[in-house]
Amino acid sequence: MARITAGVACSHIPALGVAVDFEKTEEAYWKPAFTGFDWTREWEKAEEPDVVILVYNDHATAFDMKFIPTFAIGCAESFTPADEGWGPRQVPVVEGHPDLAWHIAQSCILDEFDMTIINEMEVDHGLTVPLSMMFGKVDKWPCKVIPLAVNVVTYPPPSGNRCWALGEAIRRAVESYPEDLNVQVWGTGGMSHQLQGPRAGLINKEWDNRFLDQLSGSTDALRHIPHIEYLRETGSEGIEMVMWLIMRGAMGKTTEQLHRHYHVPASNTAVGHIVLRPVDEASAANDVGAAA
Amino acid sequence: MTTPRDIHAYLAEFEDIPGTRVFTAARARQGYHLNQFAMSLMKAENRETFKANERAYLDRWPMTEEQKQAVLDRDFNRCLELGGNIYFLAKLFSTDGKSFAQAVSTMTDMSFEDYTAMMIAGGRSPVGVRSIKEKY
Ligand SMILES: [Fe+2]
């Protein structure tokens, strides 16, 4: 059976992608943002995931104001990096996993999550920047990717609780897929940032670090944070952190933190990153079984 | 799951955040054509047409006169007030060759240099700018 072996979260700031693409990661401004990902790049080489379910949001790229799906899953064979207004990023085409994606879509719909299914889509920095952070500059991404796009632009976005519950449904879906696959779930976006208005530039280190603290262990306090708290405490674009809760929900009851990184600033934004291992007893037993 | 929310109370709280326009359904409706105009700048040929004659290109869109003027003035706070969304407006400042940080700094009372220095020093503190009413 397929199994979820790890969860990863990170910011998907477009300027990080620019720094990778134009060899700026060693510059004094960027270096401290990037060194926190060195551990993860080595770890990913050892983990060799078959599939990453990558939770992100589209930033007026594939979706304009015509259609606003709350939760949409990419079921295509492949996804091309989009031209966001300054030419497409020179990164590999993203290969999908249509069989598993359709399985998750069907399973989630039966589980009462009314997913939108996408069969053709270009992907923006929200999806490609995390791939660059975790895998570096490569000719081909080392795994298949299932994009899971969440509306966090037009209000109301889904509640944190709903996101967490979708993560739980994704876990049930993956665990009922017959092929033996090593699957990771990534949550992206955040952390604190505000890109608009006179309050732009807001950063809340204390709040962000409390959020990071509460991703590990067995607390589920984060699922109950209301939208207004994200807006007041972490800036208008800090709401993207609800997407991290889909990843956390997919880890099961308890998690263990393997790695963590926090840095301010990257452009307007606080860079946050965490790697989690699910330690739910039932799945821990499965992992031992699968390894044997 | 959770108890149903009072939608009016939910929306009213958004108006209590200083210096912030939450992109509610009302703003999304008001700014629909402004945002779709900005979206059209994703295509290189549209960027060229726009740059050649901004006013003429704007006149192709059923936008209000205030919205058109805010675009011509690159007054991003005014664009937000008139229903613009920052991810859509990003197509406009990218067309101008401006980065997110440059465009964002124009919405504050700071120069780009001062804004950049504030970010390097840890960003804007949330203290005092969480709530208009409660002033905390
Ligand atoms: Fe984002």
Describe the structure.
The complex is a heterodimer of chains A (292) and B (136). With 292 residues, chain A is an alpha/beta fold. Chain A is 34% helix and 22% strand. Chain A is built from ten helices and eleven strands. Chain A has helices at 14-21, 31-35, 38-47, 98-110, 125-135, 160-175, 205-213, 227-234, 242-250, 281-291, and strands at residues 3-10, 51-56, 71-74, 78-81, 94-95, 116-118, 122-123, 144-150, 182-188, 255-266, 269-278. Chain A starts with a strand and ends with a helix. The mean pLDDT of chain A is 95. Chain B has helices spanning 7-14, 25-30, 32-40, 44-52, 54-58, 65-73, 76-81, 86-95, 100-105, 112-120. The chains are: A alpha/beta (292), B mainly alpha (136). At the A-B interface, α6 and α8 of A face α1, α3, α7, α8 and α9 of B. Fe (ii) ion binds at residues 12, 57, 59, 126, 189, 240 of chain A. Fe (ii) ion is lined by residues 12, 57, 59, 126, 189, 240 of chain A.
Present the secondary structure layout.
The complex is a heterodimer of chains A (292) and B (136).
Chain A: E1 3-10, H1 14-21, H2 31-35, H3 38-47, E2 51-56, E3 71-74, E4 78-81, E5 94-95, H4 98-110, E6 116-118, E7 122-123, H5 125-135, E8 144-150, H6 160-175, E9 182-188, H7 205-213, H8 227-234, H9 242-250, E10 255-266, E11 269-278, H10 281-291
Parallel strand pairs in A: 1-9, 2-8, 2-9, 3-6, 4-7
Antiparallel strand pairs in A: 1-11, 3-8, 4-5, 10-11
Chain B: H1 7-14, H2 25-30, H3 32-40, H4 44-52, H5 54-58, H6 65-73, H7 76-81, H8 86-95, H9 100-105, H10 112-120
Helix pairs in contact in B: 3-8
The structure holds fe (ii) ion.
Residues 12, 57, 59, 126, 189, 240 of chain A line the site of fe (ii) ion (FE2).
Features:
heterodimer; A: 292 residues; alpha/beta; eight-stranded mixed β-sheet; 10 helices; globular; B: 136 residues; mainly alpha; flat; binds fe (ii) ion
